[in-house]
Amino acid sequence: LYYRPPYSWELMMNFFRVRTISHVEKVTDKGVYQRSLQIEENGIIYLGWIEIKPMADANKVAIKVSNSLEKVILTVISKTRRAFDLDVDPKQFPKLLNKGVRLPGSFDGFEVSCRAIIGQQVTVKAATTLSGRVAKNIGTKAVTPWKDIDRYFPTAKEIGEYKDIRDSLGANGIIRSRSDTIVSLAKLVANGEINFKNNQNIDELRDILKSIKGIGPWSAEYILMRSISWPDAFPVSDLVIKNKLITHLYDEDKMKISDLSHKYSKYVIG
To answer: Which of the four pLDDT bands, split at 50, 70 and 90, describes residue 261?
Structure first.
């Protein structure tokens, strides 16, 4: 799969490496991305696995796909291109932006949305651990070439039909309020109100997400950014973004951080 250079594969893999869901996906020491993958098309669920790695001295990545996904290979390619933002033209980036940067997407909108919900008010490492527990204990078994990738992340339908799902999520460390949010999201995805495809109106999808108890503006924007690779998403209330913005303004104005915080507080905090 071709892309327009420059592309910092290392930067992308560093992002995924600390967020991979154990038993479902991983990034190897050599920067190779591997995962189980299930795709539903026309009521049929196809189960398999994929492996993606950069090709040396070429502006493209190599993708290896299990034979079981042959009938949905075009969908696999489309998901891969979106997950790794291979279609973007870096010439369109703002002048100061690192041209090797790409927007990390996802292979499954529901999966990354659950990951975002689980990650509310906890560290990235904690969210990764909890998501892995959910996959291991609730997800369907997967057969892949890698012994440490042995599960599919549970689908929205599976979450909706799972007996005592709230108690099961709780047993895996997910607090009750987040469990309720995941279940509410699963119902909307299962009945088609949310499809995580680019043909759904962005404003409508944002409103639906924010109508779910437990999904605020930050989570909604993050889900839009990762699930459908929406480039204009902006989780403005994110603490890291605030701190980065303050640092940038501080460097720019050469002011004391206390003075800067006061000067820009209505923009950064408000």
So the answer is: very low
The answer to whether the beta carbons of residues 139 and 46 sit under 8 Å apart is no
Nearest to 24 by CA among 175, 128, 172, 170: 128
Q: What pTM value is reported for the model?
A: 0.88
Q: Which residues contact 65 (CB under 8 A, 6 or more apart)?
A: 48, 49, 50, 73, 76
- Whole-angstrom Cα distance, residue 25 to residue 19? 9
Q: How confident is the model at residue 240 (pLDDT cuts 50, 70, 90)?
A: confident
Backbone angles phi, psi at 76, to 5 degrees: -60, -45
CB proximity list for 192: less than 8 A, separation 6 or greater: none
Q: Measure Cα distances from 120 to 4, 33, 117, 175, 233 in Å.
A: 34, 25, 5, 11, 17
d(CA 11, CA 7): 9
Cis omega before residue 6 (within 30°)? yes
Euclidean distance between CA atoms 36 and 147, whole angstroms:
11
